[in-house]
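Quick one: structure tokens for this chain, please?
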Amino acid sequence: MPRVPSSLRLESKRIGFPPDDEAQDRLQEKDAQPEPDQDRLSLVIGPGERSSLDRLLRVVAGMLTVAAVLGSAALLLSDAGPQLRAAVKFTVRLAPRAWAFLGHAPLSAMPLLLIGSAYVGLQALLRPVGIELLKRLMLGSAFLLWGVVQLMPPSVVATDLGDLVITLYVLDLGLIIRGELQGL
């Protein structure tokens, strides 16, 4: 390191910079610290690292979420109007067997089942505890049951399951409101 003229050295002391000798000592201390061994594999998962199962759950939850959004878009497009229905009918003429799978009931059930599955699966990754886990599982279960109800023909069982879905939503929202009021 080149020597600093004495007038600059005095100036650096006056404005709060450390003298050259102290700065040199700090640099040597910093260089003397051992660097972590990059060649060894750690069996302990640190706070910033994720296990393979966590990564798999993240991918599955992400894929289910995208599929649910696409399913919702398909639902909206199928109900959009006469112009879009004509396009759907044209597409259906090209693939007659697809129509059996693309009726309204499966289209309305698909996004509900996919997003419910994604949300319930996400809880294994997030690992909430206590009442928070209960609220999240109720919400995911409500979506799953709602999707099942969409696939069922009108009946007493379908009505009862629909009522259960409503109850799950009301309980979940009630717990959320209770938690918010306690926080005030």
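The first helix runs from residue 6 to 14.
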